[in-house]
Amino acid sequence: MASEPRTGISSSSPHSLSDIERSAARYLFAISALSESNSNRIATGELQEYLDVTPASVTEMVAKLDERGLVEYEKYQGVMLTDQGDALATEAGWRFCVVSTFFESVLDMRVTDETAFDIGFVLPKDGVFRLRDLVDSACLGLCPALDDDSKRCMA
Predict the structure, then answer these.
(1) CA distance 28 to 23
(2) First to last CA, the chain
(3) Distance between CA atoms of residues 69 and 64, nearest Å
(4) Which one of 23, 53, 55, 132 counts the least CB within 10 Å of its CB?
(5) Which tens digit of pLDDT belongs to each residue from 92-108?
(6) Exposed, middle or buried by CB within 10 Å (0-12, 13-18, 19+), for 78?
(7) Any alpha helices (H) in 1-112, and if so which ranges?
(8) What is the mean pLDDT of the chain?
(9) Is 132 helix (H, G, I), strand (E, B) or coil?
(10) Are 88 and 16 in contact (CB under 8 A)?
(11) Phi, psi (5° rounding) for residue 146?
């Protein structure tokens, strides 16, 4: 249930963002964002810098995500998303894009990336679809589910 607290990464295989904690989703999203310009593994140092966290935090979370089958991690070699991790990162990216686009195009407000991510993460999926339906303008180009013709988030 979405209202139950997320206490960590459970041992079962996640099927949607509601199955993982926000910090895990944030790492998957960051790996995806960093991977767009680099098809190789992402160095944990890059991830640390992108997320502004400690090296120990990156190592701990990446190991947990690896145990869950969401990333492939090799010490000193870096990290990359698995297909399942990529699917969750794509959902997180879609939610982020919809929220960012809604605030900018409908409310004429800019929110920080972290705020947009947090809102998109906690908002029920039907709420994200409602926001998307209210957005008249094209996506901000951040959406992994971007329709190339209309430039709208299609997920």
Answers:
(1) 9
(2) 22
(3) 9
(4) 55
(5) 998 998 999 899 888 99
(6) buried
(7) 22-35, 44-51, 55-67, 83-105
(8) 82
(9) helix
(10) yes
(11) -75, 130
- What pLDDT score was predicted for residue 4? 35
* Residue that has been written with the tokens 């969401």 in this structure: 70
- Give the pLDDT band of residue 135 (cuts 50, 70, 90): confident
Buried-state track 9-30, b at ≥16 Cβ within 10 A, e below 16: beeeebeebbbbbebbbbbbbb
Residues near 125 by beta carbon (within 8 Å), at least 6 away in sequence: 16
Backbone phi, psi, residue 143, to 5°:
-85, 130
Q: Report residue 104 as tokens.
A: 């900018």
In Å, how far are 9, 34, 113 from 31, measured between CA atoms? 17, 5, 15
